[in-house]
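Entry type: protein chain
Record version: 2
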Amino acid sequence: MVIKHKNIFETESCWSNADKQMLCLDTGGWRTERPVLDQTKCNYCGLCCLYCPPQCMLDKGDHYEANLAFCKGCGICAHECPRGALTMVPEGEFGNEG
């Protein structure tokens, strides 16, 4: 038996072929902590990027850093980093900077 489903929205699907953004919301204001990178410890393994739930890690060529507009501060990237290059720092330590 084949179940046919007609998508209601243009971007609705169970997968994406990455030709357009599916849903992109500025969720950076949700977090209470942010990941901070120590580049001297980073070996560019990509595990932080692989495990990041919202996939907000940006490839900078020799390291990854979180796109703070979308980072929710869950800390999974810091937890998965085998070298301890990412640490979670409370937002209050950054004052009003973005």
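Comment: Strands lie at 33-37, 57-59, 64-66, 86-90.
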